[in-house]
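Colleagues,

For the teaching module next term, I've prepared a clean inverse folding example: a structure given as tokens, and then the sequence designed for it. I'd like students to try predicting residues themselves before seeing the answer, so please don't circulate the second half yet.
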């Protein structure tokens, strides 16, 4: 049975910060595909206050989360324990996309570890915070982060990143608007 919390307690914050992997789920308002994205790099997630969290959105294969948030704002983030006591924490809420052109971006960026290929920051205001048992989640060991995404982004020059974002980040797989042309211009940002 899930237990709900009014705020991110110290215990929940400690649990969240200890997880090397989390999952982000969004969906369009009408029809379309539900998207679930795994996120690594523990230093790409931060708790801002009792009900607000954020994560660093890095260049990737698509733009589903951004498109869905701009469509309806709904988002769920899930953390699960693959070691230690079983636990699953879900953060349900409303997300917004903060791009390098937006006020507050530079201050938010300081909250994260160093990563190339910064595309945006997703800020989530939680309206439901819950945890549950996670009894069926398997034990798995964490060896280390894969460095491939950072290495891939580091090899791209500005024009290559601009071309990639224009091709892959302008709209979702369902045709929803993603990043606008001025937002796909990779202003040199490295967290």
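(Answer key — instructors only)
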């Amino acid at each position: 049975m899930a237990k709900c919390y009014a705020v991110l307690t110290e215990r929940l914050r400690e649990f969240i910060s200890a997880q090397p992997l989390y999952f982000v789920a969004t969906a369009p308002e009408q029809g379309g595909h539900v998207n679930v994205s795994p996120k690594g790099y523990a230093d790409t997630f931060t708790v801002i206050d009792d009900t607000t969290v954020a994560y660093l959105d890095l260049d990737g294969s698509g733009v589903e989360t951004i498109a869905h948030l701009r469509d309806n704002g709904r988002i769920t983030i899930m953390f699960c324990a693959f070691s230690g006591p079983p636990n699953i924490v879900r953060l349900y809420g409303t997300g917004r996309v903060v791009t390098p052109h937006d006020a507050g971006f530079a201050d938010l960026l300081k909250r994260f570890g160093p990563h190339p290929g910064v595309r945006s920051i997703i800020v989530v205001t939680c309206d439901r915070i819950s945890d549950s048992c996670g009894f069926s989640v398997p034990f798995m060991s964490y060896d280390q982060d894969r460095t491939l995404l950072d290495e891939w982004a580091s090899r791209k020059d500005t024009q290559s990143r601009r071309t990639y974002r224009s091709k892959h980040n302008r709209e979702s797989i369902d045709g929803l608007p993603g990043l606008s042309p001025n937002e796909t211009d990779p202003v040199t940002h490295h967290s």
